[in-house]
Each structure stands twice: as C-alpha cells, then as structure tokens.
Amino acid sequence: MFLVVYHVLILSLYLYALWFDSNFVEIPYPSKEFENIPFRARASFLTFWTMMVQILYFIVACLNDAIGTNTVTKKPPLIRKIKDHLFSLAFTTAVYVPITFWTLYKIDKTYIYPNEEAERQIPNWLNHLMHTSILPIILVELFISNKNYPKRKTGLKILLCSAAAYSAYIHYLYFKYGIWPYNFLHLLSWTNKIVMTLFSGVLGVLYYLIGEKLDSLISKNRREHKHANGIKSH
User: Highest taxon of the source (predicted)?
Assistant: First the structure.
C-alpha cells in the first residue's frame, strides 16, 4: 500500500510543479528566438526532459500498481516490463541532472542561467524539486520497489538513444535559431563541445551501472532476508 501511495504522491507533486512552472514562472530569455521553442522554451533544457522522464515513469508505475504486479517474478506482465525499463533511464537522469547542475552552479551560475533575473523568477522549492529532490525521490523508489533491470545492452541503448535525441535537438535549435540553452555552450569551441558530449556520455553510462549495481545488491538482500525468515518459520 505504501508503494502505491508513494507513486501517486510523487506523480501529483511532479505534475503540480509542471503546471506551476507553465502558468506562473516567467523566465526572461536573452533573445526572442527562445519564443520559437515549445513549452515556453523549457524543451531546450535537459532538466525539462528529465522531468518528463520522471513523470512518465511514475505514470507507468501507477498503471503497474493498478493492472500489473510489484512482486518478484521472472515473467512480469508488459506494463511491469515497461516500468522496469523506464526506471533504468529515470534513475540515470535523476542522478546526472543534480550532480551536473549543482557542479556548474558552484563553478559559475551564469553557465546555466541565462541571466540573474531568470534565477530570481524560479521559486526555491521548484528549483530544488527539479534539480535536487529528484535524486532522493528516485533512490527511495529504488529501495522500496521490486524491479527486473533490463539487460545491460538494452538499458544502455535506451539511455544513449535518449542522450543522442537531446543532443540532436539542441544542435537543431542552434543551427536554426543560433541559440544554446546554456551559456557555457557559447564559450566552448566545437572541439571542446565534442569532448564534453563524450564525457557526458561516459558519466551517463557510469551512473547507469551504479543504478544497476545498487538494484542488484538490494534485490540480493531481499532474497536473503526472505530465505532467512523462511528457515526460521520451520
């Protein structure tokens, strides 16, 4: 029951944040070209893509609660398979965004905010929900829900295809409108952009493997705990 309540609560929180951002947060972008980007230019930011992944995951998790199964099983229904595959992407992005965002923020916050006014327009609770809380939220999900992680080859394909899609999108915006979503991209040469992209990909793979390993350890502990309890009951 706790798992179901948790899924509904987090999904409601994320949907409220998305609604609030769409209706009450006005970011003063540095150029009018941002007006051409969907979702009030939010679609240019990795944070927005990550939030969409989290929302999609918790929608599927709620559906799985209703018509699938949360038990340990070698042959899960389709909705559970989709949920487990999505989790591998949701976990990786929920680790990547907070670490990257706050690292760049500490170095120079102008790297990620178009201007100081933009930062002031975003409430602290919304900022931390998008860039901080998503990490502990997905860690809680990791510990309280049973999962069948996808095969590594499949999971990494999902991750790298998603990363390639975002990279292709922001390059499309640059070549069409001459803008980058983050200020630091204006400062990098094309060689450094390529290096940064490859390094980001390596970090993404590393975070994926961490999630896979943690899930394996947690699943093993669950099995050992159940086995021990079963022996004691005889």
Answer: Eukaryota
**Residue position matching structure tokens 């998503």:** 134
Give the whole-angstrom CA distance, residue 20 versus residue 108.
Answer: 27
Domain range annotation of the chain: 2-161+173-232
The one-letter amino acid code at 139 reads: L
CA distance 108 to 152: 36
pLDDT tens figures, 187-222: 999 999 999 999 999 999 999 999 999 999 998 887
Confidence of residue 225 (pLDDT cuts 50, 70, 90): low
Residue listed under structure tokens 């930011």: 45
Residue 227 pLDDT > 70? no
Spell out the alpha helix ranges (H) of 25-151.
46-67, 78-108, 116-121, 124-128, 134-144
Q: Which two tokens stand for residue 134?
A: 């998503």
Let me know how long the chain is: 234
CB of 155 within 8 A of CB of 88?
yes
Burial classification of residue 127, based on how many CB atoms lie within 10 Å of its CB (0-12 exposed, 13-18 middle, 19 or more buried): middle
In the chain, what is the straight-line distance between the N-terminal and C-terminal CA atoms, in Å?
28
pLDDT for position 1: 86
Q: Which of 111, 16, 14 is nearest to 57 (CA)?
A: 14
Contact 48, 34 (CB under 8 A): no
Residue type, position 30, single letter: P
Q: What is the pLDDT of residue 234?
A: 38
Which amino acid is located at 118 in the chain?
A: A
How far apart are alpha carbons 147 and 149 in whole angstroms? 6
